[in-house]
Design brief:
The complex is a heterotrimer of chains A (310), B (237) and C (279). Chain A is an alpha/beta fold. Chain A contains ten helices and 15 strands. Chain B is α+β, with helices and mostly antiparallel strands and 237 residues long. In chain B, 17% of the residues lie in helices and 43% in strands. A ten-stranded antiparallel β-sheet of chain B has the order 4-3-1-12-11-10-9-8-7-6, with helices on both faces. Chain B is globular and about 60 Å long. Chain C has 279 residues and is mainly α. In chain C, 71% of the residues lie in helices and 5% in strands. A two-stranded antiparallel sheet of chain C has the order 2-3. In chain C, a hairpin with a 4-residue loop joins strand 2 (149-152) and strand 3. The chains are: A alpha/beta (310), B alpha+beta (237), C mainly alpha (279). Chains in contact: A-C, B-C. At the B-C interface, strand 2, strand 4, strand 5, helix 4 and helix 5 of B face strand 1, strand 3 and helix 13 of C. Chain C: Keywords: Membrane, Transmembrane, Transmembrane helix. Chain C: The chain crosses the membrane at residues 20-38, 66-92, 113-145, 165-190, 197-217, 254-272.
Chain lengths: 310, 237, 279
């Protein structure tokens, strides 16, 4: 299947700092593509390049099979976006804002569509109020309405849950899922929090200091082989020496006086437990982390330089 | 200074004074005729030819009342007349009261042979130091006066007669007078400096000082001696 | 394009700031009219000293035409500020509130955006000057009446008959629109470089003030560059109040202003089409 967006080897340098280095990836129709990275990792810069806000120093951006540049801004009709904050004209109503941004396309959008999109984001009834009276969450939803109003194929949402309360976060999450599931939209969503991505994304890319350090299907990234198991122990004897002599040694990734950390398959946990008890280790606790969080942290902390396809 | 010079002239020509008796009679006769006009109203057309004054021809109504009231009125408009002491009438440019008159011969002006009188007032109340008058003796009309005043320099009045000759009133006059320099700082006026310049202002400015200006008045009609209220001459504030 | 222009104007005219300009013009004109009403004659006589010594100038001197001229002259410095208030904010103001980012994710070209904003700024300028005409000229005429207009130049005393004035004002306002459009283009050019509206507004004013001072200093060292400064040509509207209108000079000035406007607009398009939007 032809990708909606294809990024080929883009690089952007700001004042001698590589914001994005030789980055390539593709977004296919139906993906909810998670963009994960710490603040300053290059997520926003990449999204801005994809939207023509920033011009890459090198590399190509292909949207719907056509190379995108400042002369091909009409290709942006396939994309709707909110980048960073949902900034609007505060002195105008939500309706006026929507109308103004809806007009910034090459086709006319009927009022019925504006109403429909307001309904979709749950702003119906508040559209006549001035935006400066809106809460952050309402602005965020209006931003999404603006991004959706011209019916783009791809929706780019940069940190959409930033600054929202838990209910707002849950609403946005549900909205993203519904856009993908019910409306067939492709979504590129970024976050610096893995669990945000984890809950909505089907594919993801991990960015660190402008470089891709991991990319793949979420199910692959949630590889049970990579489970982290923390074992609390009462310090006694030669625990580490015994492990060193055992077949568990390759799986041991961290050890302190009262805690051992293994990286192993979920099915191996009971076996490890048995072995520890049998070898006279007093186990106080076993915690397994079935989340990408540590994976992400370990990727960004330990292996930042290595690009790995998982 | 001018007055002293005039007195000197007077002393110098004193021996010829007797010869001037005819001239004196001529002057008094002329003055009597001129002073018969007590007042008039006239539609006029005023043309001001002074270098720094860019003024189109002005049409208006001119009111005159003897001895020294004059006013030009233009409906909703602005009128510009030289200051009082040199009124635009013959009567104010020829000295009043007792005078010394000297006949200085004849001259031809625009094909007309005229007698020239020098008139020196004996009283000092008009500001006039000396008047030179070109008179048509037969018609008893003054065709030119050249009046030296204490404060306003020399004023020359040329007159042309036509329809109103019986009142000794001219159809057209031209007043030639000294005009002072005019200048305002550019920082105040914030002028538009033309580029390219249509005229070289700097060149023009050089000879702006104490130039002669000419004011022409064409009298289109007169209403003479019908009486004019003094209120007419009150300046609008 | 028309629809986008309408919406741009809607944005401009829904903002309270826009009306500050109209308020300032109104207030300045009315204060001036009050001042001229109470002490105008004395004020004007000061300038007329040289004339009054020798001539009796009578009639309705302080009339609507003269008052309008004096208002225009005194607003010479303020109007560029008022134009910059809107034009300088077009790009930078949107960058500041963050909407530029959203605008530029939409499928319109940056060239379109700049042209729309320039057109909107020009329309705003036209409306501001038209309002100035209403308040400075027509209100003054209503208060002070018609009359012949005296124009005191540094080297000439000009008087224009009352029936000969109004066309000059129409031309002068037309020229003022052209001059202020140049200011709008300058402001927008500066606006393209900035990420908040204050910078371009102040920079526009700074440029206008400094160049105006240079233009009026008449120092030999500046005389060489003076003909190339757009500020020297901005007062071209005054040419229409000369006894003999210097059409060649006015045409030349208009041409220079158009050249600057085109230059600023071209510069804006060039830079803005290459600018990274980081705001």
């Amino acid at each position: 299947m032809e990708p909606i967006v294809e990024i080929q080897n883009i690089t952007k340098v700001f004042k001698k700092i590589n914001a994005v280095s030789d980055l390539s990836f593709s977004i296919h129709k139906g993906d909810v593509y998670g963009f994960l990275g710490q603040n300053g990792a290059g997520k926003s810069t990449t999204m801005r390049m994809l939207l023509g806000l920033i011009f890459p120093d090198s590399g190509r951006i292909i949207i719907n099979g056509q190379e995108f540049n400042n002369g091909k801004r009409h290709l942006l009709r396939h994309i709707g976006a909110i980048i960073e904050r949902p900034d609007m004209y505060g002195y105008l109503s939500g309706w006026d804002n929507l109308k103004i941004f809806a007009a910034l396309t090459d086709r006319s959008i009927p009022a019925t569509r504006l109403h429909a999109v307001l309904e979709q984001v749950g702003l119906k009834g508040r559209e006549k109020d001035k935006v400066k009276t809106y809460s952050y969450g309402m602005k965020q939803r209006l931003g999404i309405a603006i991004a959706l109003v011209h019916e783009p194929d791809l929706l780019i949402l940069d940190e959409p849950t930033n600054g929202l309360d838990p209910q707002g976060i849950a609403d946005i999450r549900e909205l993203i899922r519904s856009l993908s599931r019910d409306h067939g939209k492709t979504v590129l969503v970024s976050s610096h929090l893995l669990h945000e991505i984890e809950q909505v994304a089907t594919r993801m890319l991990v960015l660190h200091k402008g470089k891709k350090i991991a990319e793949g299907m979420l199910s692959d990234l949630l590889n049970p082989n990579e489970m982290l198991v923390q074992v609390g122990v009462i310090p006694a004897g030669q625990v580490q020496a015994r492990i060193a002599a055992s077949s568990w040694q390759p799986m041991l990734v961290g050890a302190s006086a009262d805690q051992l950390t293994f990286k192993l398959h979920k099915d191996n946990i009971p076996e490890l437990n048995r072995w520890l008890v049998m070898n006279g280790v007093n186990v106080t606790e076993i915690r397994s982390k079935h989340s990408l969080e540590d994976h992400f942290l370990s990727l960004t902390n330990d292996q930042a330089t290595a690009t790995r396809a998982i | 200074m001018i007055r002293i010079a005039a007195i000197a002239v007077l002393l110098f020509i004193a021996p010829f004074r007797m010869l001037a008796t005819d001239a004196g009679q001529l002057y008094y006769a002329l003055r009597t005729k001129v002073l018969q006009v007590k007042d008039y109203t006239a539609d006029v057309r005023l043309k001001i030819d002074i270098d720094y004054m860019k003024i189109p021809d002005l049409s208006g109504k001119l009111y005159y009342k003897a001895p020294d009231k004059m006013k030009m009125v233009r409906k909703d408009g602005i009128s510009i007349l030289p200051k009082k002491n040199i009124n635009l009438t013959l009567s104010s440019l020829i000295p009043a009261g007792n005078v010394t008159v000297i006949d200085v011969g004849t001259a031809t002006l625009k094909g007309r042979k005229l007698r020239i009188l020098k008139v020196i007032p004996e009283e000092d109340n008009t500001g006039i130091v000396l008047s030179k008058i070109w008179v048509d003796e037969a018609a008893m009309l003054a065709y030119r006066t050249e009046t030296t005043t204490k404060d306003e320099g020399t004023v020359t009045l040329d007159l042309e007669y036509g329809k109103y000759v019986k009142h000794s009133l001219p159809d057209k006059i031209a007043i030639t007078m000294d005009v002072k320099e005019y200048k305002l700082p550019k920082g105040v006026t914030m002028d538009y400096s033309e580029i390219p310049k249509t005229e070289d202002l700097k060149e023009k400015m050089k000879d702006n000082k104490n130039k002669k200006g000419v004011i022409e008045i064409a009298y289109l009609n007169y209403v003479v001696n019908k009486g004019i209220s003094d209120a007419v001459f009150k300046e609008m504030k | 394009m028309i629809r986008l222009l309408q919406l741009e104007l809607y944005k401009i005219f829904r903002r309270p700031r826009t009306y500050i300009s109209f308020g300032v013009v109104t207030a300045t004109a009315i204060i001036f009219q009050l001042a001229m009403g109470s002490g105008g004659k004395e004020f004007f006589e000061f300038g007329m000293q040289d004339i009054s010594e020798q001539f009796n100038v009578q009639g309705n001197i302080i009339n609507g035409y003269l008052v309008a001229y004096l208002i225009l002259q005194s607003l010479l410095i303020q109007i560029p500020l008022l134009v910059a208030l809107v034009a300088g904010d077009t790009l930078a103001g949107e960058a500041n509130i963050g909407t530029l980012r959203l605008v530029l994710t939409r499928p319109i070209t940056r060239t379109q955006l700049v042209l729309i904003k320039f057109a909107a700024s020009t329309i705003y300028t036209i409306l501001l000057i038209t309002w100035l005409a209403v308040i400075a000229l027509f209100l003054s005429l209503a208060i002070f009446g018609e009359g012949d207009m005296i124009n005191l130049k540094s080297d000439a005393f000009v008087m224009i008959l009352k029936d000969d004035v109004i066309w000059r004002y129409i031309c002068a306002f037309g020229f003022a629109i052209l001059a202020m459009t140049t200011i709008a283009a300058l402001s927008m050019f500066l606006s393209a470089f900035a990420d908040n509206g204050i910078g371009p507004i102040i920079a526009t004013m700074g440029i206008v003030v400094v160049l105006t001072i240079l233009s009026s200093l008449e120092l030999p060292m500046f005389n060489a560059i003076n003909p190339y400064l757009f500020t020297a040509h901005m007062v071209g509207w005054k040419g229409f109040f000369d006894a003999d209108v210097p059409y060649a000079a006015i045409r030349h000035s208009a041409f220079i202003l158009l050249l600057y406007t085109g230059g600023f607009l071209g510069g804006t398009l060039y830079y803005f089409n290459r600018k990274d939007i980081n705001s």
